[in-house]
Design brief:
The protein has 17 helices and 16 strands. The protein has 436 residues and is of the alpha+beta class. Bound molecules: histidyl-adenosine monophosphate. The site of histidyl-adenosine monophosphate (HAM) has 25 residues, from strand 6, strand 10, strand 11 and helix 12.
């Protein structure tokens, strides 16, 4: 039997997993401040949902979905979600919000699945933290999201650049499409097979051509084709974001790989991540609710790639240091990144001591401190060396003598001091030393 991990699917242990949790928790805290509520959506949806939203000509739908027949669902084909937006829009329509309370603000967090070629920063199962806002077509809403993203990136000390663009609406997009098709045909020989196949169906993707990035710089710019309303909208987005101190560059050749976008589109790229350096991406999707059978309601959102944010932090000593104490890496972080270092490790000498220690440890934990109990069947020497190597600050030593005296030995492993700590005063004694 082959029990190898699947390619592009990761096992995350210790500090790697903890780093993701910290980033996710930080994003959740931001959501509170921006008044955005959580939504949990299914991992499986019908294939039609993605075909109609993400788009038949997107890489995701063309070649990256994990799709299979679901026998229970009248032989329909279901897909492991490759992104969150379509599921959130479907949930919004299913709940009837488009008719009853169109203004909604949601966030979600969880795994997404795409059968891509795995490499650093690109996995087949990866974690997104996404936001979707419904019922707001004003540019102030776009700017608010750019400010939110800027807050997230700057507070994590990530060195990154934000690029924004406007790709127009259903009024002005046709002229831009026509110009791109004409440009593509005049450079036919230099385009890749994907471009040849998609030129009529999705000419915006020509700007992402993998063969010749330089050539794309000669392509028509979306900004030259914006209608008056789109131009004004994009102007206000930039004005408000700049007034709030967000730094961004306008990249008129940035289009997104998914089909539903209209008007504002944006990507944030982190320095030093190599080719998979987009850590946040999103944009407006004013027609999507209607395309999926709902009322005509505007929408806008983005997703943070949590795995890539973790890579950006790991590669940046300043950012990592800022998280250091919260990451609680054991002293030998490089070799044993399994657990968060405990504040106190109980060194337990025999079975009577084990009975006493389970209660004592419970009291210390109730005070909010992180405790690990070591095995009573090991020698004191081996337990102390274990306490040291896991990075515990204190060893609480309990044996027969300590039980009789109703006092443990509290050893400060950093300062190399040992004191007697009556069982009743163990917590205050640990706390007093922690703040020293
Ligand atoms: P996306 O650009 O496909 O957009 O993905 C958003 C982010 O997810 C990327 O910028 C990247 O950080 C991360 N990501 C994507 N694929 C992978 C992968 N294979 N491995 C690791 N990370 C990855 C969306 O998914 C849209 N739903 C975003 C959105 C929300 N637009 C509007 N609302």
């Amino acid at each position: 039997m082959d029990l190898q991990r699947l390619r592009g699917f990761n096992d995350l242990f210790g500090s790697s997993s903890r780093l993701l949790t910290i980033i996710e928790n930080h994003a959740r805290e931001l959501m509170e401040r921006y008044s955005i509520g959580e939504i949990r959506i299914p991992l499986l949806e019908r294939i039609e949902l993605y075909q109609r939203s993400t788009g038949e000509t997107s890489d995701i739908v063309e070649k990256q979905m994990y799709a299979f027949e679901d026998k229970d669902e009248r032989q329909s084909t279901v897909v492991l979600r490759p992104e969150g937006t379509p599921g959130v829009v479907r949930a919004y329509i299913t709940a009837g919000f488009d008719r009853t309370q169109p203004e909604q603000r949601f966030y979600y967090s969880g795994p997404m699945f795409r059968r891509e070629r795995p490499q650093k920063g690109r996995y087949r199962q990866f974690f997104q933290f996404g936001v979707e806002i419904f019922g707001r077509e004003d540019a102030a809403c776009d700017a608010e999201l750019l400010i939110l993203i800027d807050d997230f990136v700057k507070q994590r000390l990530i060195d990154a650049t934000m690029e924004i663009n406007s790709i127009g609406c259903k009024e002005c997009r046709p002229a831009f499409r026509a110009a791109l098709i004409a440009w593509g045909k005049s450079h036919w020989d230099k385009l890749c097979d994907d471009c040849h196949n998609r030129i009529e169906r999705n000419p915006l993707r020509l700007l992402d051509c993998k063969i010749d990035a330089k050539l794309a710089e000669t392509a028509p710019s979306s900004l030259d084709y914006l209608c008056e309303a789109c131009r004004a909208h994009f102007g206000v987005v930039q004005e408000l974001a700049a007034a709030a101190g967000v730094t961004f560059v306008v990249n008129p050749r940035m289009v997104r790989g998914l089909d539903y976008y209209t008007r504002t589109a944006f990507e944030v790229r982190a320095r030093g991540l190599g080719s998979q350096d987009t850590i946040v991406a999103g944009g407006r999707y004013d027609g999507l609710v209607e395309v999926l059978g709902g009322a005509s309601i505007p929408g806008i959102g983005f997703a943070i790639g949590l795995d890539r944010v973790a890579l950006a932090i790991e590669g940046n000593p300043r950012a990592l240091q800022a998280l250091g104490s919260r990451l609680d890496l054991p002293r030998e972080a490089a070799t044993r990144q399994i657990h968060r270092a405990p504040v106190a490790a109980f060194v337990v000498l025999g079975e009577a001591a084990a009975r006493e220690s389970v209660n004592l440890a419970r009291v210390v934990r109730a005070a909010g401190l992180n405790v690990e109990m070591l095995s009573p069947y090991r020698s004191i020497k081996s337990q102390l060396s274990q306490a040291n190597s896991m990075g515990a600050r204190f060893a609480v030593i309990v044996g027969d003598r300590e039980i009789e005296a109703k006092a443990a030995r509290l050893r400060d492993l950093r300062r190399h001091e040992e004191v007697e700590a009556g069982f009743a005063s163990l917590v205050p004694m640990i706390e007093a030393r922690l703040t020293k």
